[in-house]
């Protein structure tokens, strides 16, 4: 969230692209996001690993189960109308991102999910582009037991309040 706030202060355009800084998202997909946005005049365009020809490469079974499980639970409880709620490769209208940042309270893994749930709650439109996600070459994921517990708490909070 703090990187988003910093980036918004310096962004001069009408759209902001959010992506992992570890190069696990291929920059060339940016053009597909722009095309999808123009096609449907969407407020948000989200990369999805779980629709069309999207996919995940380089994750072990545990990581795949955690990601699929988090998305499944969110689909069942919140019906957000988007297929990949934990991904972090997205294009936002700048004013939409600013509004969502004001509304979102979560941190960590649950933050991406809350952004989509709040966007639907506020009536924003969301388009999806299938992406292939390749696990990072350098560094390690911050996803551990504490993040999973935080995600579940955030999910239940959103279920109770939306």
Automatic annotation (TrEMBL):
Chief place of localization: endoplasmic reticulum
Domain Glycosyltransferase 2-like: start-end pairs: 2-100
Localization per record: Endoplasmic reticulum
Bilayer-crossing regions: none
Listed GO MF terms: dolichyl-phosphate beta-D-mannosyltransferase activity
Pathway assignment: Protein modification; protein glycosylation
GO cellular component: endoplasmic reticulum membrane
EC number: 2.4.1.83
Assigned keywords, A-Z: Endoplasmic reticulum, Glycosyltransferase, Transferase
Assigned protein family: Belongs to the glycosyltransferase 2 family.
Role according to the record: Transfers mannose from GDP-mannose to dolichol monophosphate to form dolichol phosphate mannose (Dol-P-Man) which is the mannosyl donor in pathways leading to N-glycosylation, glycosyl phosphatidylinositol membrane anchoring, and O-mannosylation of proteins; catalytic subunit of the dolichol-phosphate mannose (DPM) synthase complex.
Subunit architecture: Component of the dolichol-phosphate mannose (DPM) synthase complex.
Record's protein name: Dolichol-phosphate mannosyltransferase subunit 1
Species, as recorded: Tyrannus savana
Organism phylogeny: Eukaryota, Metazoa, Chordata, Craniata, Vertebrata
């Amino acid at each position: 969230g703090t990187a988003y706030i910093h980036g918004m202060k310096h962004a001069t355009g009408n759209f902001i692209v959010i992506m992992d800084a570890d190069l696990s998202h291929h920059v060339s997909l940016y053009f597909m996001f722009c095309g999808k946005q123009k096609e449907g005049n969407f407020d948000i365009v989200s990369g999805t690993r779980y629709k069309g020809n999207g996919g995940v490469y380089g994750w072990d079974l545990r990581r795949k189960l955690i990601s699929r499980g988090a998305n499944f639970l969110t689909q069942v409880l919140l019906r957000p109308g988007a297929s990949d709620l934990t991904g972090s490769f997205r294009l936002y209208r700048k004013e939409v991102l600013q509004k969502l940042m004001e509304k979102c309270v979560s941190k960590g893994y649950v933050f991406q999910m809350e952004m989509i749930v709040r966007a639907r709650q506020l009536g924003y439109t969301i388009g999806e582009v299938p992406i292939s996600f390749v696990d990072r070459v350098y560094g390690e994921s911050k996803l551990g037991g504490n993040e999973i517990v935080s995600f579940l708490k955030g999910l239940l909070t959103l279920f109770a309040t939306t």
